[in-house]
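SAMPLE LOG
Freezer: B-3
Tube label: C17
Construct: single chain, 294 aa
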Amino acid sequence: MAYVVDLIRYPVKGCAGTSTSDALLTPAGLAHDRSFMVISEDGIFRTQRRHPRLALIRPAISTDGTRLTLDAACGADGTGRFGTLRLDVTTSAPRRDVDLFGTAFQGIDQGDEAAAWLSEFLGTTSRLVRVPPEHDRIADGLTPGPSGYADSSAVHLLSRASLALLNQRMAERGAPILPMNRFRPNIVVDSHEDHDHDSGGDRAALPHAEDRARRISIGGAELGYAKLAVRCAVTLVEQEAGARRGPEPLRTLASYRRAASGGVVFGAKFSVITPGKLSVGDEVVVQEWGDAEV
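STRUCTURE (predicted):
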């Protein structure tokens, strides 16, 4: 058996996540997940790959999505408290052209106050946009599905067993173990229902079982497997510090997690087949299995 042990949403793409005990799973993923995005003046999305300080911004979104709070505990000089921005979300402002991995989309600009706050904190001219209601992006994969501003599919699922194996292999190399937040999943699963033990623990079994799950039921919701999660330089960023920290985990993952189609993979991406409510403690039932692509 497997259970949901954490649910994390990332209201602003590239910024810190927030754990929650319950979440509505919409057709495009957890409610409000990656529904906002930081962009350059010419519309290109900002990412921790080039702007690791995004990790220091902690967004909070109201249940109805009308209020967004951005808090940064670290100042622009690396010390102290930067401050808090409280924003009334607009869905009626003019649309802007935005670029996500070379694909053109639209975003609703959230105004000059948000732009000034982000530009000062990141040290480069930036603006904040929201996914418009008419956003009709369909992410590809074995099960295509709607997606907001996520890199690809709507939901990223990862097991503690997979992380435990990675940490074991890194320890054998003399590298420090890593927390789950290096990988920024939406749903974390474990073979034990209690969700208070260390995310680097070794109690969970069957590492990378998520690679083979093709259809999953959680509570009243259902997910369909889309693809493996290809890992990038974001995994090198220590989320608490907003800074890169060496070659791990990519160096170790490259030694045993190369996909047949190319790239280093860890975790799996899913599309939403049936929306519903998810809760920590929900049983994860695999309705259909397939062959791993690694």
